[in-house]
Amino acid sequence: MKKVCVLFCIVIQTVIGQGFLNIRVNTDNTTQIQNEQQIVINPTDTLNFVADWRDFRVGYRQVGHAASTDGGRTWIAETLFVEPTYNWDSDPGMTVDAQGNFYAIVLSFNSTSQPNGFFLFQSTDKGITWSAPRTVVNGVQNVFEDKELIACDRTNSPYHNNLYVAWARFLNYTTPAIYFTRSTNQGFNWSTPIQISDTQGSLQWPVPAVGANGEVYVAWCGSSSIRFDRSTNGGITFGTDRTVQSYASMNRYVKGTILTFSYPAMDVDITNGPYRGNIYIAYMDNGSDGYPDIFFTRSTDGGNTWSPKLRINDDPIGNHIDQFHPWLTVDRTGCISVIFYDSRNDPNNILCDVYLAQSTDGGINWLPNVRVTNVSFDLRAGSDFEFVPYDPNRPLVDQRAGLIGEYNGIAAASKGNPVPIWTDTRSGNQDTYVGVVQNVGLEEYYSMLLRKPMVIRPNPVKDYAVVEFEVEKTQDLTLTIYNSMGNLVKIINTELFNKGTHRLNIETNFLPRGVYFLVGAGQRAKFVVLK
User: Quick one: pLDDT at residue 502?
Assistant: First the structure.
C-alpha cells in the first residue's frame, strides 16, 4: 500500500480564500466602526473601482470613501465626505454614469432625526476628488428619510445618464412609504419626490435599477413579500405594485444581535448578450430548517412574472447555518455575481465568511460557491448606539453604531474579476475589506471545485476505508488527519502521484469514534468512525 497522508480538516472548503486576496480599505487606527459598504466600477476603465461606507472614526457616524486604479489591490484618496448641514452622515449609496463620473449619496441628520435630508457628491476624476454636496431632498417636515440607494441609466435610451434615487419615507416618523426622485443634469436639480408604493406601512429597503431600454425598476420589502414597480418614461410615473416572491419575514435577528432584512439585491443585464433585459434579484429567506438561506429569482418579461425561487448557497440543506446580507451585480459579459455572509465553516454557526456565487447562463445554473475570505470572523463584535446625541465631550465608544450595518456590495467587469466589499472583524473591530482575485484566477479555482469529489467507502467506517480521489497533475501529496475539534491527529508523507484517479486503503482502527474530515489534492471529504 502506498504511504498516504490524509488531511482531515474542519473547514468545509480546503483552498479557503486562495482565489482572493483580502485587502483592508480603511486606514484609520481608531478601532472604530466601518460598515454598510457600496462599490462600483468605472465603465470606461475596468481597473477603476470606487467605494464608500459608513464610518465612525471620529466617534460618530460619517461616510468614508476611497478609490482604486489597479483593480482593487491598492486604495487611494481614502477620507471622509464633508456634509456640513447636519452632524451625522449615514446610509451610503453609490453609482456611476456612462462617462465614468461617480456619484455618492448620503443621508444626513442630527441626533434628533429631524430635520434630515439626502445629499449627493460627484467625482469626475475616478473618485480622487469630489464636488461639494448637492441637495437631493432636505428638510421635509414630520418625516424621516431612510435607506436611500441610487442608480444611473447607462443605456442608450432617451433617459441616458439620468440619476434615480429611491428610499423609504417615514411619514410622521412612523408610517413608511416608498418614495422616488430623479435628476436629468448630474444631480444639480431633482424632481419633486413622488410616492411610488401603492400602500403605506410595513415597507422598507427600496433598491433601484435600470433596464436595458431605460426602464426604471424599484423593488422593496413588504410585510410578507418582495414588492416591485416600474417606470417606462424615465421615472416620471410608475405603475401598479407587483409581488416578486413571498418570504417568511421582512427582517430578523441572526446570531442573537445582528439585524438582517430580506431586501431585494437587484440588477439588470443591459449587455447585448442572450440574457439582455433580464432582471435578477437575490434575497434572504428561511430555508427548510428555519435558518436563512440566499435565494435567487429572475424575470425575463420586465417584471411581469418571476421564476420560482432558487437556493444558491450550496452548503448542505437543513444544516442550521446562517446565510445573509446578499448583494448582486451583473457585469459587462452578463455574468451574475452574488456575495453573502456565510457561517458554513463553523459548526457552531457563529463565525462568518464571505462567499461568492456566480452564474453565466442567466441564473439557470450556478457555479460552486467560492469562499472569498481567508479568515473567519465574529460579526457580533461591537455594540449598538444608534441614537446617542452628538456630544464632542463624550467618549468615542459611546457614540458609535455597532452591529454590522445592513448591506455589503460587489462590482465586476467580468466573471474573472469580481471585487466584493464587506464589513470584517478579524482584527477585533469593524473594518472595510475588499476581495481581489489573485493571479491564479477564478477559472483554476472553479476547475478545482468542479473535479470529481473525493469519496470514502464505507462511510461510516470501522477499521479501514477506501479513499478515491483525482489528481489534476503529477505531484507529491501531503494529507493530514484532524479531528472535528481541529486537533491534529496524524501526518504521513506521501510519494509521487501521477495525474489521474487514485484509490487508496486507509487504516482507521486507531481513530476513536467520532467525525473526521479528509482533505487532499485540493479536495475534501467528511466521514464518521464507528466503534
Answer: 84
